[in-house]
From TrEMBL:
UniProt EC number: 2.7.13.3
EC main group: transferase
Species of origin: Elstera litoralis
PANTHER family found in the cross-reference section: SENSOR HISTIDINE KINASE RCSC, TWO-COMPONENT HISTIDINE KINASE
Name under which the protein is recorded: histidine kinase
Domain Histidine kinase stretches: 15-245
Tagged with keyword DNA-binding: no
Length: 274
């Protein structure tokens, strides 16, 4: 019954967001046309105001897309058709998207070496896993310190008996940011959870849905996001995905996170509430 109500609520949110998004896209289109220097001779002040309108509309459109994702994920986690995805392909896509974001913020992202990716594949849904990883990396950039870094690492996890069947790849995102206190940890993956304005870097933007959506997506991939953190030092998030053609995994030692990614003690790990 509760699942059905959640799904109905999600359908309502998705439909409402869909209609609102069309209106925002129309505003963006009109703003772009007004700024066309061939059609309109605008003053600097007019151009500044139109630029601000466009930026605000972009932010609103991003928020609406987030709400739409949240609405679609209400109710039971969907069962997805999982396919083999080369690990290097996903990392390459993340690099091309997020390296420019890091550079603009004056930060760096340390990626796994090519040798650690060769011949490695995941059993997953490529779009959803990309969305999960992009959210974790963006958060690492957003809540970092000046000149800080985010590290993306891959750890190879064979089965307890050492066989390749059932081996998993652990995808790790670590940062040198402000960290997460124990008082905030229990609600980290709850919908609409936002960072308090009293914390360093000020209040977070957005609706507080990014990690909630990422956790639901991870669950649809038969995984779960786990994290460990130390305030003032940084955070480490990870999820485990089934490896494909992993007969060589057991012969390759786990890759350690780069030096900028602190490996926090396991007794400090705080597992996300399911």
């Amino acid at each position: 019954m509760l699942d059905r109500q959640a799904q109905q609520h999600g359908n309502f949110v998705t439909t409402t967001v869909h209609e609102t998004r069309h209106l925002v896209q129309a505003v963006l289109a009109d703003t772009t046309r007004l700024m066309d220097p061939i059609r309109n001779d605008l003053s600097l002040e007019q151009r500044r105001l139109l630029t601000r309108m466009g930026d605000t509309s972009d932010q609103l459109l991003g928020l609406l897309c987030t709400l739409s994702d949240f609405g679609r994920l209400q109710g039971p986690a969907p069962t997805l058709p999982l396919r083999a995805l080369p690990l290097g392909e996903m990392i390459g896509r993340l690099r091309s998207t997020l390296d420019p974001v890091a550079r603009q913020a004056g930060l760096t992202i340390d990626w796994p070496k090519d040798a650690a990716l060769t011949g490695r594949s995941l059993l997953t849904d490529s779009e959803r896993l990309y969305q999960v990883m992009a959210e974790l990396i963006r958060n690492g950039l957003r809540f970092n310190r000046a000149g800080g870094a985010v590290s993306v690492a891959v750890e190879y996890l064979p089965t307890p008996d050492g066989s390749a069947d059932g081996a998993r790849l652990r995808l790790v995102v670590a940062d040198t940011g402000v960290g997460i206190g124990p008082d905030l940890a229990p609600d980290l993956f709850s919908p609409f959870a936002r960072r308090p304005a009293t914390m360093p870097l000020g209040p977070t933007l957005g609706a507080g849905l990014g990690l909630a959506i990422a956790q639901r997506l991870a669950q649809s991939l038969k995984s779960s996001i786990v994290f460990a953190s130390e305030p003032g030092i940084g955070s480490r998030f990870w999820l485990d995905i089934t490896a494909v053609d992993a007969s060589i995994v057991g012969r390759v030692p786990p890759t350690a996170p780069p030096a900028t990614a602190r490996d926090y003690p396991q007794d400090f790990a705080l597992k996300a509430a399911q």
